[in-house]
Each structure stands twice: as structure tokens, then as C-alpha cells.
Amino acid sequence: MLTLVFWLSLALLFYIYLGYPLLASLLAQIRGLPISTDDSYQPTVTIVIAAYNEADSIEATLNNKLELAYPDEKIEILVVSDESDDGTDSIVERVAQSSSRSIKLFRQVPRQGKTAGLNTLVANATGDIILFSDANSQWDQNAVNHLVSNFADDGVGYVTGKMVYVAADGSLVGDGCSTYMKYENWLRVKESAIGSVVGVDGGIDGIRKSLYQSLRADQLPDFVQPLKVVEQGYRVIYEPRALLKEDANEDSVSEFSMRVRVSLRALWALKDMAHLMNPFNYGLFALQMVSHKLLRYLAFVPLITFTVAALLLAPRGGFYALCFFGLVLLYAFGWLGRKGEERGRSSSFVYAVPYYFLLLNIASLKATMAFLKGEKKVVWKDRKSTRLNSSHLWHL
After folding, report:
1. What are phi and psi of 156, to 5 degrees?
2. Which residue of 152, 171, 307, 375 is surrounded by the most CB atoms within 10 Å?
């Protein structure tokens, strides 16, 4: 029985992190589906931004959107302030007064969260394409052109750009996050080729307004909205030319908190959209949902069972001992990475990747525990302002 647990856990971990990506890559080569892009296609667009106490970044974000290479008459910017009390509203109004592009502010009182705010903005949007930006998102100048070029294909309903996390100080969390995003972006290229990507980031996305569906305030728009598009028979694809740079969290506390929050809302989204995991109705996409999302969020389960089984089987030597030794190195390097961060030590790939891998899995564990208790998150904080007691990271 113990050996069965060992091999099943190892096989599942291999499939989650390597097997499924390799399968997606193989299918992309065998049955790649083309996208009829047109770089001259310029529909009307509405950029929507939800903000809560973003006085430190909202002006730079708006100026970034005003500098985008797109016709002024075909673009508008809508901002919803979720009962901000730090001067965010006055900054938006000031920028709007001197802008050559239409900027409108909506105030949401009382606080209802990002999803409710986006519902309000889309209802007031005039563009054929809705583009989602975070309140601190800095887009490449040609990002809009690259995003909308894909909507020239009538079968495309949602497009997500390429988010690149950068760590100015070379932090371990930043390096680990950047490595993780490179892995995810590679996988999105393969998933786009076989039909649709499963997950998007939300900071540089676009959707046909006709396909947008109002969501409950407790639903995660970055996750549920693309699934709603697939549900309607359209593709969700990845556009790597549409670039967004965002600063990575420089400490594990804020990164861990953000990952717990996002994972919790994603688990609820998976519950809401569980019918998409029926292979008889959604075929390959159902396999993608289970492999890329459900199993990824629950990967801590086979990781725990594999660790326990390897520990108990290690005295037999051979491959069992080798696997146990590998796990010891994984946990040791992850722990050293954490201690190094506390001392302000320079980053190293050897520490950053195990550290971030363990952080993601512990965050998923904590989110799953909250999900099983029925907890939900509706209002949000940005990546930089989110904090948890640092003791929560390793002591659950």
C-alpha cells in the first residue's frame, strides 16, 4: 500500500508540473489551431480600471494609457473608485480635465469589491472591446494594437497579454515569481495553439463587450470571465506581444497573502464553473481545466503523501532513498531561501525556485482550508498593500 501511494503521488506530481505541459506542447504540434490576426484592425475600445486607494500609482497608470499608440477617437478610459479615501478620485478627475482622451470616474459606495466595480464600468462602456487594466499596470505603447489584432478572428472572444514580473532589488521572491511566470507564459502559448488558455492574469486582458457577463461580487473576474467566454463557444488566447511590466512583491509575506487570496477565489470559481470539467461536453478544454487548474491548486496533496511515503520507504535504499534525498534538498533550499530573505541576502536561482514552489503550495493549502470552511473574499487590496502576519507563512 505504501509503495502504491509513493508511485501514484510521484506520477501525479510529474503529470501536474511536467506531463501536462509536455502533452499540451505535443498537441499544439499535432493539431495547432491558427488565429487570423490583423494588425490593421482597430475597433473602438474601452479601458476599465478598478481602484481602491491607489493615489500612489493611479496617475502614472492613467498617463501610461494616454500614451498608448491608438487613435484618440477610438479609445475611452473608465475608472471606478471603490470608496477610496486617499485622494484617488481627485487625481483621476485632475488628469481627466487635461486629457485628450475621454476619462470618466465612477464612485462605488459602499465598498463592493473589484468585480462589482467592473460590472458597473462595462455597463457604461461604449467600446466594442473591453480592456482590463489594474490600477498600477504599465502597458507597452503598442499593447492595445497587439491585443485587438486578435479580435479580427471572429472565433476569438478573449485575449490576455504577457505579464512580466520584475524585482528591482533581485529578491528571492521576485526571482521565483519571474521564473514561475516564464513557465506559465510558455504553457499559455501551447494552450492557445490547441484552443484556449485556462488562466489569465487580468492586468492586460481584452474581451468582446457582447460576450461580457455580469458576475457576482464574490467571483474572480480574471478567472470566471474567460471561462464564460469558452462556455459561449469562443476562444481565449494568449498574445505575447502585448506586454505589461509589474513589480514583483519583494517579500514573502505580501506574495503569500496575495497567492492565498487569489487561490481561494479561484477555488470558488472552479466550483461555480465545474460543468466545464465535463469531458463529454467540453472535450480537451475539460482536461485542461482539471490539469492546469484543479490539480495545480491541489498539488500540495500528492506532495505531502509523496514526502511521507518517501520518508518511510527511504530505509529500503535505491530509488526511494534518492527521492527522499531530493525532497530533503527541496525543503532545505526552500527554508534557506526564506532565511536568506530575512537577512536581505542576494538572490540565487538554486534557492529562489524551491522557495517559490513551496510558497505556492503552502498558499494553496491555506486557501483550500479556507475554502472548506466556506470563507470568501470580495473586497481586494493591491499586491503591495496586502500583508499577513509572517508567522502564517510556515505555521498553518
Report:
1. -95, 125
2. 171
Of 220, 241, 211, 239, nearest in space to 141 by CA: 241
Residue 292 CA neighbour count, 13 Å, CB half? 25
Asked whether the beta carbons of 170 and 13 are under 8 A apart, the reply is no
- Give yes or no for a contact between 210 and 259, defined as CB atoms under 8 angstroms apart: no
Confidence of residue 391 (pLDDT cuts 50, 70, 90): very low
Nearest Cα neighbor of 162 from 130, 128, 138 is 138
Under a CB-based contact definition with an 8 Å cutoff, are residues 46 and 78 in contact?
A: yes
pLDDT digit string (tens) for 97-118? 999 899 999 999 999 999 999 9
Strands (E) across 128-175 are located at 129-133, 138-139, 156-166
d(C-alpha 271, C-alpha 259), whole Å = 18
Q: What is the pTM of this model?
A: 0.88
Question: Of 235, 233, 164, 161, which Cα lies nearest the Cα of 198?
Answer: 235
Smallest CA-to-CA distance from 245 within 64, 52, 47, 56 is with: 64
pLDDT digits (tens, 9 = 90+) for 336-371: 888 777 776 555 667 888 998 999 999 999 999 999
Cell of 132: 482590463
Q: What is d(CA 36, CA 156) in angstroms, rounded to the nearest whole number? A: 9
